[in-house]
Amino acid sequence: MRHLFALIAPLILFSGCIGTTDFYGRSLEPKSLVEFELYDHNNDPFNLSDIVSDVIMVGFIHTSCGEECDNLTALMAQSFDLLTDQEQKRVSLVSITTDPWHDDSSRLNYYMMNNSVEWPHLTVRDINSELGMMELVWASFGTSVEISENQSKSMARCSIHLMDYTVNHTYHVILIDDERNTRVQWLYSEWDSESVAADIRRLASE
Predict the structure, then answer these.
(1) Looking at the chain, which terminus has fewer C-beta neighbours within 10 angstroms, N or C?
(2) Cα 122 → chain centroid
């Protein structure tokens, strides 16, 4: 009996530790982000290294997306608002467009005002020379972006905004830790603001 207890006791102690590093969202294998420079809603250069927060919440939207992107933006704000004032100081929010052909700085500015948010919204300044950088950023965050023209089947990959196309992308938010590794994914379809806030707290406390 004594030997049986000796075997069981470590299992009990170990089982109590299971899940202590889990997140409510989808845990990601830590992956360092590539350095990038995009442009914000004021048309100013924006580098991820400019942010000194412990946690960064990065969302992917585009201004003509409609309900899904507007809701995702509102949910990001809602999760942030659930944090205390002290906790909020350790967190930054960023949104990156998935439609740089259409979303210039002025459109992002209007989108921010229309959705009553103030965090940086990023795009490129010159789609013809900087699309490669944007594609690298999407890939770094695991964001799938598909462009389909609604009428003509021909579309130049680097063309300026077409008036009749559809953007389909991953509706998600990625949480980044203080070492600038991707750590947690929250899909729009699975969002729970309380749980997102809890994941932010956990990341900030590491």
Answers:
(1) N
(2) 12
Backbone angles phi, psi at 97, to 5 degrees: -70, 150
> For 112, left (φ over 0), alpha (ψ -120 to 50), or beta?
alpha
Burial status of residue 133 (CB atoms within 10 A of its CB: 0-12, 13-18, 19 or more): middle
User: Domains of the chain by range and CATH?
Assistant: 2-204 (3.40.30.10)
Q: How many helices (H) and strands (E) does the chain have?
A: 6, 10
**Distance from C-alpha of 97 to C-alpha of 85, rounded to nearest angstrom:** 28
141 versus 155: the higher-pLDDT residue is: 141
Q: How many CB atoms lie within 10 A of CB 10?
A: 9
Output the pLDDT for position 198.
98
Tokens coding 70: 């507007």
Contacts of 119 (CB under 8 A, 6+ apart): 92, 93, 94, 95
Residue 163: the pLDDT is: 52
What is the pTM (predicted TM-score) of this model? 0.84
* 148 pLDDT higher than 50: yes
Q: State the DSSP string of 30-98.
A: EEEPPP-EEE-TTS-EEEGGG---SEEEEEEE-TT--HHHHHHHHHHHHHHHTS-HHHHTTEEEEEEES
Average pLDDT over residues 64-88: 96
